[in-house]
Amino acid sequence: MAITDIAAFTHLTDTDIDNLGVELDAIRLDIEDSLGERDARYIRRTIAAQRFLDVAGRLMLAGSSKRPAWWAGTVTLGLAKVIENMEIAHNVMHGQWNWMNDPEIHSSTWEWDMSGASKHWRSTHNFQHHKYTNILDLDDDVGYSILRVTRDQPWQRRNIGNLLFNAVLALGFEWGIGLQPIELSKTFKGGPERELTVRLIREFAVKAGRQVFKDYVAFPALTSLSPAATYRSTLKANLVANLIRNVWANAVIFCGHFPDGAEKFAETDMTAETQGQWYLRQMLGSANFAAGPVLGFMSGNLCYQIEHHLYPDLASNRLHEISVPVRQLCDKYDLPYTTGSFLMQYAKVWRTIAKLSLPDHFLRDTADDAPETRSEQMFAPLGAGFAGHDPATGRRRGLKTAIAAIHRWRRSSRTT
Fold it and tell me: For residues 306 and 290, is the Cβ–Cβ distance under 8 A?
């Protein structure tokens, strides 16, 4: 099931893990020391370009009674919403640009173009997900309380709808993110929890109401003043632009958390967790996808999800640079660096969601060695003496080599 002993799973000693932590700390310090005007220019130009696209899209929609203008305006507005959500809002609210001391581009003041309240997201994402990454029952992003994404979640009849639930979640992702911090059941209980929940509901309703008014009342009404547009055509364009942003954000985030190789952990694995162990859990619990400059930009540089989880408050435009030494450390400590093409990673996510809609007895792999669920128990056939260095080559035998060895062992077992 989930990993309960991260050292045993990775075939690293406590000293190895501490040394890994020291080397990852050094990477952070190097980046922090080099942040400067070039980086500040990057985020300011990104914000300016996003606002230009937003205005351009809305101006195009002034002619939206004509099909070419409608499509041009809708796609342009959708791109503006994607950039605002992924490369700007997500990263600003992580505090990646707080070092600039610019009150406009600061994690405490930025309010994003989505139905959810920014301060709610900062709480659930920055202070919960990134602290307890992929720890069962502590990280609500594991399945978003809707999907079954690991066998550690006991199968229930409602899981038959896994594929449908994921499709609905993708289309309405902004609403799923907005409602995530709110446990409605607590409104029926007394005491401080009920008061907190009622306050969260009120704050969410205010923000969502403003967003709905802006997207589906104010802007369509303004655009309809043009003789070449109608209220209905602009309303539909805003709806489609939001759907573009929602589906894209869902795909990027899921590619970073649920493809093969993104590990899950038990609560026991964070007991007295050191900095090195925390780093290691981030590396194992995240996944990248291959991207060029354009795809990387449109994903908010979350194509480097491993690096983002190691350093969530470091500037997104530096993650490509950070990925080079991180990958070298993975080679040094014989750790997998989980990555693949965007389409392949996304296909693996959907495969996992489809597979786990079924009860466990329909599944072929064991609960300790499945693409979406692994634990240190999968290495039992290798014996206690496998870790360390290969006596023939002198190379370190860590997690990457152990996974390859156990898969060879399983193949040979099936053929004999």
Answer: no
